Amino acid sequence: MSLPVPVPPEGVDPAWLPSAAFRAVGGRRTLIRGSDPLVETVHGEVAEACRRFGGRVVRAASDGPYDLVLGLGADGLGEEGFAVARSGGTTTVTASGGRGLLYGLFHVVRLGEAAFRGDWAPETHRPAHALRMLDHWDNVAVHPVMGQVERGYAGGSLFWEDGRARGELGRVRTYGRLLAACGVNAVCVNNVNVHAAEARLLTDRIGEVADLADALRPYGVRTHLSVSFAAPIVLGGLPTADPLDVSVRDWWAGATRRVYEAIPDFGGYVVKADSEGQPGPFAYGRSHADGANLLAAALEPHGGTVHWRAFVYDHRQDWRDRTTDRARAAYDHFVPLDGEFAANAVLQVKHGPMDFQVREPVSPLIGAMPSTRPAVEVQATQEYTGQQRHVCWLGPMWSEVLRFRPEQDLCVGELARGGLVAVSNAGDDPFWTGHPLAQANLYTFGRLAWRPDAEPRAVLDEWIALTFPDAPAPLADGLHAVLDGSWRTYEKYTAPLGVGWMVQPGHHYGPSVDGYEYSPWGTYHFADRDGVGVDRSAATGTGYAGQYAKPWSELYESRDTCPDELLLFFHHVPYGHVLKSGKTVIQHIYDTHFEGVQEVEEARRVWAGLADLVGQGRHARVAERYEEQLRSAREWRDQINSYFFRKSGVPDERGRRIY
Amino acid sequence: MSLPVPVPPEGVDPAWLPSAAFRAVGGRRTLIRGSDPLVETVHGEVAEACRRFGGRVVRAASDGPYDLVLGLGADGLGEEGFAVARSGGTTTVTASGGRGLLYGLFHVVRLGEAAFRGDWAPETHRPAHALRMLDHWDNVAVHPVMGQVERGYAGGSLFWEDGRARGELGRVRTYGRLLAACGVNAVCVNNVNVHAAEARLLTDRIGEVADLADALRPYGVRTHLSVSFAAPIVLGGLPTADPLDVSVRDWWAGATRRVYEAIPDFGGYVVKADSEGQPGPFAYGRSHADGANLLAAALEPHGGTVHWRAFVYDHRQDWRDRTTDRARAAYDHFVPLDGEFAANAVLQVKHGPMDFQVREPVSPLIGAMPSTRPAVEVQATQEYTGQQRHVCWLGPMWSEVLRFRPEQDLCVGELARGGLVAVSNAGDDPFWTGHPLAQANLYTFGRLAWRPDAEPRAVLDEWIALTFPDAPAPLADGLHAVLDGSWRTYEKYTAPLGVGWMVQPGHHYGPSVDGYEYSPWGTYHFADRDGVGVDRSAATGTGYAGQYAKPWSELYESRDTCPDELLLFFHHVPYGHVLKSGKTVIQHIYDTHFEGVQEVEEARRVWAGLADLVGQGRHARVAERYEEQLRSAREWRDQINSYFFRKSGVPDERGRRIY
Asked: Hey, is the C-beta of A519 within 8 angstroms of any chain B C-beta?
């Protein structure tokens, strides 16, 4: 019984799965073998492709040979791995389980005609980690400040609308299909900030979550849920949420059992505790290991996992207090707890020590807890990187993070044994992601989560080939031209040299150099008339640099060896300090800000030249957003340059206009 | 038929009309003569006082002599004036109209026992201007950003709640009574920013306004309405709101006729047009005189007045553009229109050229349009002066404005022939004004509106004597100690030397030195490492100083003659510039900010000593707000000082802690 391919609603962009992407597969003779619900999904996909492109698909060998054989049977590939080979004119994909076979099919789709040429030796493909998750910061009820989707820039939520389940399960299935095609296998369906309506998803509203799980399951995507640590009180009526209290433990065990009755393959819980006002174990004098293990114990009998977020810091800091350093917080809180977390408790760590700035060092927590399973969290939704009004392809940033080696041996991509997680950038927007080119971020995340050492530019090639299967070479060149360097361009015209922040408080769009300077959020640049930056050295600063293992602790400790792009994150330096580039800090600020705007102007020009190659609706929307990006980039340039010129008094060497 | 005194809801503070304030009147024998609805109000007041304090009131002379005779009869005092005299043991109040008699009664109440001592020569009292209005920036529907009351710090609205009329007409009558006792005779019942729900008050919801008018009328308070200039389109379905279009004029005539059918003594319209996004005549290439005269013509047959606000400026300015000066805008827009406004059109001018900052020069528009009737608008609601969490008695500021003489002859108080207007600070709070001591602002406004040359400290004495009729001398001393200098204290710890702004954008509470520096709002300080302030001189700056008549234009033009407190409003000066006080600008900034906080600490100490004298509820609320004021004042001190220290590099002479 093949499962029909979901039909997206009228007007919704197919993203990287247009029909034409299936041309090579759809024109062949294919044999599918095996019995598993996901094999039916595979069958549905191939059948639909054959319907369009004239091929044929069968479930039992009879009139071979076949161009493509997809079948269960191989051992040792795990639930998600697959093997591919080609000989004698037949391409063979085998897997141990249905999900592996589905990923194998999408591998063949990506290869296109190349999948059916020549002979090749067998290859095996397995994801680096079992969990590749998108966290949706979607609220069920519209939050008075944060709206339907916190930090969402792609319309409303795919799952919720104004307090209710949205009910568009066809679109949810379509979403699951896109995720499967890039390798994502888990979705957390609600915001980590769990407000009143959302808390109830755990109990009396679990049926709405089950509906989502049913829609996502055929594409191998498991459902997770953000829960409130205070649930035993607010939902259970208990007087406490103390993780060591027996009634609390019983309550979680019972609630979790009922979750699994509704969703047998439920993935687990995501928890933001003792963070930015969310409740947590500190209220009871318990540790975060106590808190995580409480939920881990409830999930363990059912095979679930708790993702416990490490984003814990003092968000009511006094800006006058220079001894407290938010960057230190996660390490200081969690490293002493190494070894105390249950086997099915994952510590979910943001990739940097602050909060998804355009440039941060890699969190020193990753690799510092050998007996704990970390998941590494990145942010596909562009909260601090242009909010999907600016083009900012994050593949190179994520790749740098994943390739970083905290010590000599393993890189972050290998250390993330708890999985890779991205905050989703998708919503009910017709292009899924608001900015059509931001689809590339979602796709790239999935592929890097599957294979963290993938070359991001090659992933972008995949995305281009799938999204625009019939496009001529100039389009691919144009897309690379506007995407490849877009993250560095964004970095150039915003906060310089790793210092971060300098954004409008609250909504985080657009510049405000002092916006967070005298705030309680622990986010300062300390610019004065002589210099700028945060001294995080061990010798004279907050000691944060000392949280790294060697060689990083030594490299970051000295302003002479600290990489330019992180200089102001680690050091307070005079404006005349000479960078490795040979420029002074102040001239670097001026130059990069002028360059950044020029690069946006150039990208806009390139995009204008692609008008006939990408479809009118897509072209118009991107063109319109380039206008806003350019306006905003100029605003950044002029505010940053004026601020530092007024403060430093140092004129631009090239005499350009500063206000 | 005497009108009963309105009974405020349980728990609502009597403000300056506690029963005990009527002791002197209530213990006497009083004769009331005359026939007028407001004479019944007077009768009701005296009867209620007599019921409490054992006196007697009659309507026809029979068994004299009387201690007090209140009667209509005198000619030539106008609708609101009254004469008082005392001889032969009888105090006599006469008036030409019922409102005058009511004001005469409250005059006697203010005098207390002194009203019944000795003999005095006849005195006449008349208000300086016919209109003494409170503008309520109350929304009918809760606005998504501004809430129920825009810039309201006293709970909800007295008139509206969540889209509906609140319906507490007893409280509205009680409010009218308080207003009559300080001399206010007009209330505009909705926000000058007229949103969709509020627009309909003019037409199908006029009955709700009529209910308010009925409740306020017995205390001589007329009702006004803010209307949308686009009403003919949004309510009338016309294709245009062009003021010269006949169908538009007809529409307004008809709508206004129906308003007067519902409210025969309706006061008129208040209009904010072409300002901060509100619609106006500019859209049709018409002048503001055209716009105002359109509404004036509709109101004229019924005796109504249009209050046309002069708050017109470019709120989408480019911060890079130093040639545009928001301070110039009202003068530049309106002076060319002098002589073009209809007789019943009043130009309502904010007292300063910007927007109710703690220190501004007087608007040069006042006095510059000899053929136009200006009303002067002040802000009792403390948007920029501590939002009723800080004690900031504005009497001295308003008095300075009213005594200012734009030319040699008339002062602002005399020039305001269109009346005096305050944005109300009252709401449904049990203390009416959020901060109990902010009642003094409401009272002081009314009394200064009646008599602009009154000594504010004497008005404060009145307020204290009425509000605390049985209080011992130390309470009066304590209240003066915490109120008299509170405006200057607030000025000390906030933005220095007239430069203004430096507040958090949006809500305007708390410091943000650069909060409006790179904004489109025309509100800049241009601080750099060398100096600070806005050059508004004619010689080298925006020319704003030249909008004044002599001697002010000359005085403000030179930094040598410009008053210290306005120096940075008119000039950009180096931090080392020496003030008339002998201090440098930078040292002045440091000193005033340290002093301001010390003064708040001292006021808090004084207030603590009044615990037994003012009632527990009031004392506790004020004490609690002093904690917040002190916290906030310290935040202001430290942010302002740190900002200027980081920028100037000049250390505090006295070596105090700057961050």
From this structure: no
